[in-house]
Design goal:
The structure is a homodimer of 501-residue chains. By secondary structure, the first copy, chain A, is mainly alpha-helical. Chain A has 23 helices and 3 strands. Among the domains of chain A are: 95 residues, Methane Monooxygenase Hydroxylase, Chain G, domain 1 (Up-down Bundle), CATH 1.20.58; 197 residues, Neurolysin, domain 3, CATH 1.10.1370.30.
Chain lengths: 501, 501
């Protein structure tokens, strides 16, 4: 068995090397690659992607996983070896159960659909892309049907990014959240809107970057095992547990852009840098789910980085960095500006309070499409209807409506959105547990100290990598299932101090 | 046949993708990778290297090459398809004739020898590394013996970097060069040494980089298909013909460092950017040999970039960029400084006149070691003897003697050095032919115009990629074999104007 486990690990290391190389090809493409490199880079990414898939779906891996089952069952569930075999088997099944023909057909379709979307959106032409979207829906159902035995047709699709989560339970959780959020948004937006103008002055790029770097270094982001570069759409990526990089973009006329995207991506990176080094090169060396990953970016961006205590410490330093822009702006004005709540049509512009409404609209529509209770032709109107009922807004056209996000046009329908809101819900749950263990964390944050929080997160969340599913991890940390209570309490407390709720 | 050729090309594209990915892994390691990424990066490079080797040595490629032989023979020698098959076959034989066991044993040995060298050199301890070097010599002979039928045992090793070049003819060429160079060096170094102090003031990094970039842009280096980054040991690399990057290093107290290494690497890059785009992804998309590649770096660095005409145009601009440092320094003083000749012990510090003496010493010693006319134990003394006779200098120890260069300690013995001097010789030959075709090139250079020269080089050298060997290319361009005449004429003219010769 030792021999077979070693053989499995060797094969997984090779797959991992290829996956990490794919990540580097992508990072370079998004940061430094000159325009002339684009065509060949596309081919290189396709070649490496294909080799990684070939190597991972090698029937020998399936055979090894079968042979190792008795060994796995002889070990504790949470042992490293049992977890490696279990998590690898789940991925292996996901990678092998979809027929190669379906994978390649869908892949070709996606590329076409994406291209069509890049034209349809500026033209506000849903009709042009409707046949593509109908085909995408058909493929999405076919993919789900490769995993029979589901409770809801979206379950297998959700499982790809949020392992073990089910459509029905997420829907119930989201319904509860929506019920509580909609009136809060209504109450807040009926009040005077905060003045955000202090953020929109001229802020030189270098000082912005230096300020963000200094903060994430204090957070615990290790620049010896990472770095920060410029890009158009910020992301976190890793090439090994020792090389976890973040990217950012700077707007000289918007201080919040680089600052909060830096804190956000650093949150993702702290998670990856905190994974147990012994998982290096295996499927355990990653986050538990897209939701758990997002919980960490949101925790460091919002629960820490947009808190009053945090800025009680950092605002004087920010004023020193930008004296002309901020010396006359009181902390309270700045704090209100970075926590300004306003209803908007665009998900990516949304604030902490309204953001989840955007996400849940998309999640619900995805489920209805997959269930067949909503036809693609009726999607634009369904979108407008939900924006009207949840946010009290209606987009003028489909450009800012159903054509807004790339997700459905560059991938399948189902499982693409729930992670954002699950992440917000979990961020408060984890933060709450950290506070229970260390009630002095808020005081430390007011002193610009993050060690206790960071250490607690490493020990309770990060180190495990993807050993546990999100639900297992939440049970382990909180002793119960996922609940919106800590999140709603967080929102009510924070925004209750800013607005009459 | 069409089908088989297409199949061959597809397989070669895959190998090429992997090789380009290796180049990216290496570039990132040398430019941006944080220290924590090192361990995993080593494994990733090994994995990609192994896959590239496996894919290229696939017996199916051998079979396709055999099957395509009649097709190849039906085509003109210089046709694209015949050249692709011919050049691929040569590489395939090089890659398949060395037994896998020997490759892996030698690879392990090299890693150990390199590690030992990194300790032996600072300790000035040749004795410690002698057994490693003896083993390296043994491996080098074994590798050469995988290619029976050679005239000289070094021929197969030279062939890896300078295809078609033979030890005996290089030795004859070098003997002639040495005979002419040694007295010139003696004559020059007996005269007053030029004052180089103007180069050693404080030159801010950003202005240095901006100045170098502006020049290579004028040379014709296309920043839409390349870029420049910082590194420790400058190099050129490419990820496709549309993405040819250079790297440089800046010393604030030495203006010549970044400037001339930029011109040097840009020369390599101009070559790669000038290769016919239709060779993309095949073995034809590279330089003809290490010598021809070096000829282009040297041509743009020295024959153009250290010429009086060039600085007649650029020196006033350099003075504007660095007024405090250079406004009081006459052009003549600057020109003498960048062309200062002095005898030194270190190859990489050498000037245009003495550089080849360093290279030829190493080349001759390599041949003697391989022939068995020099024992490894006698190498340090042989080194000192040749430095005494050729340069009139003797190093105080082996640190600046036989332990100076990494080449023998990180690779095999044989074929590592000749390309540097072949490159210098060829640089003058190609430049000479360009001048014959366009006698106004020197006048254009005085005006900061390089189009005519660049276009001639693209048409006569660059576009061909590795379709022709160095000797074939020289024959094609000059109508005769490689000769030192143009090079010696260049050196005598240039340095005759600076010194009494």
């Amino acid at each position: 068995m030792e021999h077979k486990l070693k053989r499995l690990k060797n094969k997984l290391h090779e797959v991992n090397d290829l996956n990490m190389v794919s990540a580097l090809l992508n990072w370079d493409q998004s940061t430094y690659m000159p325009p002339g490199g684009a065509a060949a880079r596309g081919r290189q990414m396709a070649t490496i992607g294909r080799l990684a898939h070939e190597k991972f779906t090698d029937p020998e891996i399936g055979k090894l996983l079968d042979d190792l089952r008795p060994f796995e069952e002889s070990l504790p569930y949470d042992s490293d070896d049992a977890s490696l075999i279990r998590v690898t088997r789940r991925s292996y099944e996901k990678s092998t159960k979809i027929p190669a023909k379906l994978v390649s057909e869908f892949s070709a379709h996606r590329a076409g659909a994406y291209q069509a979307w890049t034209k349809a959106r500026p033209n506000n032409d849903f009709t042009a892309i409707r046949p593509n979207l109908e085909k995408t829906l058909d493929y999405s159902r076919q993919i789900a049907d490769c995993f029979p035995g589901y409770d809801h047709i979206a379950d297998p699709l959700i499982d790809f990014s949020d392992e073990g989560m089910k459509a029905d339970s997420i829907r119930a959780l989201f319904a509860e959240l929506r019920q509580q959020l909609v009136p809060i948004v209504q109450t807040i937006t009926a009040q005077e809107i905060a003045d955000g103008s202090c953020l929109h002055q001229s802020y030189p790029t270098d000082q912005q970057l230096a300020f963000g770097s200094a903060i994430i270094k204090r957070y615990g982001y290790d620049f010896e095992r990472g770095r920060q570069d410029m890009t158009h759409h910020p992301f976190m990526t890793k090439f090994s547990l020792g090389d976890v990089r973040i990217t950012t973009r700077v707007k000289e006329d918007d201080l919040s852009e680089a600052l909060f995207s830096t804190l956000h991506e650093a949150g993702h990176a702290l998670y990856e840098q905190g994974i147990n080094q012994k998982f290096e090169g295996t499927p355990l060396a990653g986050g538990a789910s897209s939701g758990v990953h997002e919980s960490q970016s949101r925790l460091w961006e919002n629960l820490v980085g947009r808190s009053r205590g945090f800025w009680a410490h950092y605002y004087p330093q920010l004023q020193i960095a930008f004296p002309e822009q901020l010396s006359h702006v009181p902390l309270d004005t700045f704090y209100r500006a970075i926590n300004r709540v306003s209803r908007s049509l665009i998900r990516t512009d949304a604030d902490e309070v309204t953001y989840n409404l955007h996400v849940m609209i998309r999640f619900d529509l995805e489920l209805q499409l997959l269930e067949g209770t909503l036809a693609v032709k009726d999607l634009p109107e369904a979108w407008h209807g939900r924006y009207q009922s949840d946010l009290g807004l209606r987009a003028l056209d489909d450009r800012d409506g159903v054509l807004q996000d790339v997700h459905w046009f560059g991938g399948w329908i189902g499982g693409a959105f729930q992670g954002y809101t699950l992440g917000n819900i979990m961020s408060a749950l984890f933060f709450d547990e950290a506070l229970k263990a260390h009630p002095d964390i808020p005081v430390q944050i007011e002193q610009g100290k993050f060690d206790t929080l960071h250490t607690w997160l490493k020990e309770n969340v990060y180190q495990h990598g993807s050993k546990f599913t999100a639900n297992e991890l939440i049970e382990l940390v909180s002793g119960g299932p996922l609940t919106i209570e800590p999140y709603m309490r967080y929102l009510r407390t924070k925004f209750g101090a800013l607005y009459s709720l």
